[in-house]
Each structure stands twice: as C-alpha cells, then as structure tokens.
C-alpha cells in the first residue's frame, strides 16, 4: 500500500451561491441571474460578381483562401456569377477581415476588380 506525502487533490471549491440579499428595510430580495455570456458575433465573407474577373481566378481564390475543394469552389463561383454575390465562409471578425484583405490584395495584384466584403451574420 502506498501513502501520499501530501493530501490528495480536493475538488475545487463550489462557486459562491448568490443568496438572498437583505435591503435596509429588512425585506428579502431574491436576485435572479439574467446575464449570460453571448457567443461572439460571426462574420461572413461575401464575394461580389463583376464582368471582368476570370472565373478561374475566383475558383483559385476560393481554394487558396477559403479552403474549398475545386468542385465546391466552382459551385460557389457560379452562384456568385448568377446571383451577384455569395458567401465564401463564416469566421470571427478578425479572421473575416483578413480573408477580405487577402482577396482584395490578390485581385489587385492580378489586375482584377474582384470585390469582397465582410458582414455580420443574421
Ligand atoms: N462574372 C465573371 C465572369 O463572367 C466571373 C466572376 C464570378 C467574377 C464570381 C467575380 O465574384 C465573382 N468572368
């Protein structure tokens, strides 16, 4: 049989229970915990159609920066081509902003007018 030199770890103390608060008049007020932490706002990167950017360039951008396979990238590109715009992915605010930058930078360097924006989901 083994003996421990120190006490075994105990469970962390339970969080304090918010008990009844007593106001000056001696009456009892039960507080209801209504605040909840909200999940972070997410942002979708939307790519816009134009008449000049080659379809192949858009497909490659969707693969490179949005991790799409070629078939999915082609479907998204065609959706944008037909509908005028389409969602490339949904991310936290900073990541979405970076994706937009990457798209605009690549398009600018290649001399294409491709545009993308990030917008809050819902
Ligand atoms: N409309 C372009 C063309 O016919 C293709 C295109 C698709 C451009 C999607 C932009 O976001 C875009 N060459």
Describe how the helices and strands are arranged.
Blueprint: E1 21-22, E2 28-29, E3 43-48, H1 55-66, H2 70-83, E4 85-91, H3 93-110, E5 115-120
The structure holds L-tyrosinamide.
Global outline: elongated
Ligand identities: L-tyrosinamide
Order of helices and strands: EEEHHEHE
**CATH homology-level superfamily of the domain at 51-120:** Ribosomal protein L7/L12, C-terminal domain/Adaptor protein ClpS
Measured as a percent range, the helix fraction is 25-40%
End-to-end distance: 61 Å
CATH class of the domain at 51-120: Alpha Beta
Strand content: 15-25%
Enumerate the spans where pLDDT stays under 50 for 5 or more consecutive residues: 1-12, 14-21
Domain Adaptor protein ClpS core: 39-116
Protein name: ATP-dependent Clp protease adapter protein ClpS
Subunit structure: Binds to the N-terminal domain of the chaperone ClpA.
Region (Disordered): 1-25
Compact description:
By secondary structure, the chain is an alpha+beta fold.
Structural key phrases:
two-stranded antiparallel sheet; Ribosomal Protein L30, Chain: A; 36% helix; ATP-dependent Clp protease adapter protein ClpS; alpha+beta; binds L-tyrosinamide; 122 residues; three-stranded antiparallel sheet; ClpS_core; peptidase activity
